[in-house]
Write a structure and sequence with these properties.
Blueprint lengths: L4 H9 L26 E9 L4 H4 L4 E6 L12 H4 L5 E3 L1 H13 L5 E4 L5 H13 L6 E5 L5 H4 L8 E4 L6 H8 L4 H16 L3 E2 L6 E10 L5 H15 L4 E5 L20 H14 L4 E3 L19
Parallel strand pairs: 2-4, 4-5, 5-6, 6-8, 8-9, 9-10
Antiparallel strand pairs: 1-2, 1-3, 7-8
Length: about 300
């Protein structure tokens, strides 16, 4: 569909974009669970070199980090922007301009990070940017707590989906994100993403993903069993029609001080067990992390660079 300013206002007057169904009148300044009103707010726009190789490539992914989040996992490494504490308000025209500036800097793609609560505005800005000369792929980078109906606004506008699949257990998702329905909601969302873009397509010379779904799963300390259930589901459902990134970079930050089980990193033994399991069940298309990925140095500075 072609997004209009009037349609954006309709969505913002009674916001039911995400599964929280807050019904906030964001046009009037109300905020829902995401802590954002109708004005776009972003905290960083820059080339990012720490994504998977098929996303960042040698030139970097043109990431735009949006403020606010409808999931707000307690351990989130982007906690300050998830809470809406960092960022700057920008116009639709400025958002469109940011995409084009990142393209001019040589970005491999435009990487929209946690944009679901601004989804109509994002759809509008992408349509305008395409008219003005945006040609590189668009990556939608999400925690996957998304509604299918909202994701349909992106059909034809997003080339690569980069969703998380964080939790299988209702207990874990309730405890860490106040979202006991996370798993079913997320797998429905990932199903819609796959419907839109299909199996992976890579650039023949650069190896960059041009189209497809790359699902990320971050191991949590002590939760190897939950991770295995997630990997089993993904492989049984999609086989080699998606890529899977198995991540060990969980970093305990100050906000988890009151949750003892989250106050340590994932052990090498835990990670190895999950990787071995992935191999045994036949996962072949994916990524793993090596070395010292558990570090706050991997967290970008949300200083409004490029905004």
């Amino acid at each position: 569909m072609n997004m209009t300013l009037e349609t954006i206002e309709t969505y913002m007057r009674d916001c039911t974009l995400c599964p929280r169904q807050c019904h906030a009148d964001r046009m009037s300044g109300q905020t829902g669970f995401c802590r954002q009103d109708a004005q776009i707010r972003a905290a960083r726009a820059a080339l990012h070199f720490w994504e998977e190789p098929c996303i960042s490539g040698g030139c970097g992914s043109g990431t735009v980090f949006f403020s606010g989040c409808n999931l707000q996992c307690i351990f989130c490494q982007n906690h300050s922007i998830a809470l809406g504490e960092a960022g700057r308000t920008i116009s639709l025209d400025r958002l469109c301009g940011i995409y084009l500036e990142l393209q001019d800097k040589g970005a491999s793609n435009i990487n929209l990070v946690t944009a679901g609560h601004f989804l109509p505005q994002v759809a509008y800005s992408l349509e305008q940017a395409r008219i003005q000369g945006l040609t590189i792929p668009v990556v939608y980078n999400t925690g996957s707590y998304e509604s299918v109906s909202a994701l349909m606004l992106l059909d034809g506008l997003v080339d690569v989906y980069l969703p998380d699949l964080k939790y299988h257990s209702r207990e874990l998702s309730a405890r860490y994100a106040n979202a006991p329905d996370y798993f079913q909601t997320a797998i429905d969302a990932i199903g819609e993403m796959f419907r839109q873009v299909g199996s992976p397509v890579f650039h023949p010379s650069t190896g960059l993903m041009q189209r497809g779904v790359l699902v990320r799963h971050l191991l949590l300390p002590g939760q190897a069993g939950d991770s295995k259930r997630i990997l089993r589901y993904l492989h049984d459902t999609y086989g080699n029609h998606i890529y899977i990134s198995i991540m060990n970079q969980y970093t305990p930050l100050a906000q988890v001080a009151g949750i003892p089980e989250l106050c340590r990193t994932v052990s090498e033994a835990e990670y190895t067990r999950v990787l071995d399991f992935a191999g045994r069940i036949g996962i072949e298309q994916g990524f793993q992390q090596t070395g010292g990925t558990c570090s706050e140095s991997f967290i970008p500075s949300f200083d409004c660079q490029g905004i």
